[in-house]
Amino acid sequence: MDSVRSPEWPVAPLGGVAANSAAARYGTTPGTGPVVGRAVPPSSAPPPPYQPPSGTRASSPPVGRPAAPPIPVKILVAGGFGVGKTTTVGAISEIAPLTTEAEMTTAGIGVDDPGARSSKTTTTVAMDFGCVTIDRSLKLYLFGTPGQSRFGFMWDDLARGALGALVVVDSARLDDCFPAIDFFERAGLPFVVGVNAFDGRLALELGEIRWALAIGDHVPLVQFDARDRLSVRDALLVVLDRALDRATRDRRA
After folding, report:
1. Which residue intervals of 27-105 are DSSP H helices?
2. Residue 24: CB partners within 8 Å, gap ≥ 6?
3. Are strands 221-224 and 71-79 parallel, antiparallel or unpaired?
4. ∠ Cα 178 214 21 (to 5°)
5. Where are the domains of the chain?
6. What is the pTM of this model?
7. Would you tell me how many other CB atoms lie within 10 Å of the CB of residue 110?
8. CATH fold group of domain 71-252
9. pLDDT for 86-126, tens place per residue?
């Protein structure tokens, strides 16, 4: 992991379209794609607890013997600037998430571009942290990475000990997610690409996104809503399944 080069993020002009953006390459106007997911913020009612598949439920401890603590699993939530990483962690965490949000100032003009559609006024300057209990035997610890290029040096440290990653993508700004995908491909860490449906819309179809990102069929590509706890849960379960599959194959090798 020490030899993995931190991501190099492209810089786009503020309010403009990058030369290698999805809109420039495909002639797609952001926000005009098919309507998917929710167009309004979902209900904040807590979802039912996740139930493992039949035959995998953890057995109850013997009477009189204390239950073993859940196994901790570290998962990264990564991606470019302003794609919804902090929202993703906050939507699923069962504790008040730790965030390192700072107000964006005029010093960031021309450096940090959240996109023309974004109303973002804060930015992560270190990391996000949250956790969620999957069942009696498993607990996920979520670490959200910063998205700006100047914080790329932190990715190596945050990736230490992680079993997998959810790479969050904005379908209207695909050029911003290439560095994250390159990072995890070089690191050899199992990852899942999660396309965040901003305002309930995708600028491109999932098949077009897979082709544009040049990711193989072995990399899961899922659509989710970063505001919806159930949707985030489902995306993280895909990450967990991918990590367990990798661990099982490594053990058999």
Report:
1. 85-92
2. 17, 18
3. unpaired
4. 50
5. 71-252
6. 0.68
7. 11
8. Rossmann fold (3.40.50)
9. 889 999 999 888 876 556 555 454 555 555 555 555 655 55
